[in-house]
């Protein structure tokens, strides 16, 4: 465990065999707390091609807003990661009411079978028919009205929905969608977006600011709660770059190059820990000595900290620049 974080160590896959039995998890992330309020401006930058991907050959689809993946087939075991609504996964094993799945980023974990739906011969929400939740969250309704009934679903950022043709005279305010379970529903057009070009580094940093104040959640990959490496993985993915999930593996990834502290540029990744071989936290450099990260220490959440402040100035053990 990390001596400065004060949280029990958990396990993950190593970089050589991430689809096999979990090994030491290096995505500890438990650091400083939330200092800024949640940004109120809607998230309008989106693109389904840049969201959490479905695994090629998926045979199941996530049918709940956010599904926890557990290290063992039990809800009291460690959370390894999460999968978002509409994302396709590959089943590997079944034990009772639990299914072991693999995601597109080679993470494995056990999920309750009730949260999945079998994939049909046609993948759910394929390119050309998919939209993605473009705000921090979005309600999905049984009819094109926000007042008639309570929402069917509250979905986080990046959740996928499949668009289907609606009535010819339907108000342009609404889109008709097919849910994972086959029923049809409605979402407001302003809550979703269609594919967009990858972001520049500056645009990705602007996007990162929109998540300030979102709480820290161990294993989290959504706006219902990120962990540190889930947050940086998402921001880098918006640049069109697929990066590994864990902080330790991110630092060793061939898609990054080492950077000296004196040469840091906005968008560089920062890695913290007791020593270079024990990386336990990550964030992204903003410039002018500041970085953005999701941390569990104090007041958990996405926040901006200063690199020269304690404990970060002593705990910075590596910096990396993503290769373009």
Describe this structure in words.
The protein has 324 residues and is mainly beta. It folds into three domains: 11-37 and 198-322, endopeptidase fold (from Nostoc punctiforme) (Alpha-Beta Complex); 53-118, SH3 Domains (SH3 type barrels); 130-193, SH3 type barrels (Roll), CATH 2.30.30.40. Helices cover 9% and strands 34% of the residues. The chain contains four helices and 24 strands. The chain has helices spanning 201-209, 228-237, 247-252, 312-315, and strands at residues 11-12, 23-24, 60-62, 66-70, 79-84, 88-95, 98-102, 108-112, 116-118, 130-133, 137-140, 153-156, 160-163, 174-178, 184-188, 192-193, 221-222, 225-226, 256-258, 269-275, 278-287, 290-295, 301-306, 316-322. Strands 19-24-20-21-22-23 form a six-stranded antiparallel sheet. Strands 8-7-6-3-9 form a five-stranded antiparallel sheet, with no helix packed on it. The protein is globular and about 60 Å long. The chain starts with 10 loop residues before the first strand and ends with a strand. The model is unreliable at 1-28 and 30-49 (pLDDT under 50).
